[in-house]
Design a protein that fits this description.
The chain is α/β, with parallel strands linked by helices and about 140 residues long. It contains 3 helices and 7 strands; from the N terminus they run E-H-E-E-E-E-E-H-H-E. The chain has one domain. The radius of gyration is 16 Å and the shape is globular.
Amino acid sequence: MEIDNKTQFSPEPLLEELVRGYDTSRLRVEVKHARGAQNWTGTYYLGYRLIRVRVNPANSYPCCVRFATGEYTDRYRRGAYQYWSQRLQLVQFGSAEQLIAGGFLHEFSHYLDHQAGRNTRWKQTKADKFALGMVQEHGIGQLVP
């Protein structure tokens, strides 16, 4: 895995630890600053095998991020339409490196789907669940009840 970090943060050791055991020989990762008001953004570029994670340099830490859980509750109707609510899990990241790792794990799930030849569309909740599981497994962030 080749990591191109254009920030003052040092997520490289954590990212390398997280992907140990996976084939990342052709994967490139870019870490940059975000330009908007979001805490972080990320994209996986299929054709380039590139994960780009952007983190807002103005974030204050600890920083909370929502991950979808795939648990649906509260079905309700409004007119002819039916709606479902998905439970979200808040995760508190204590540093920029942890936040970058959380965003990277979400995008890494898309990379794994691509490597396995799976359909890469409509997989946001699956990617969130993967990232949330890895965050818990490696103790990167704290779950907020």
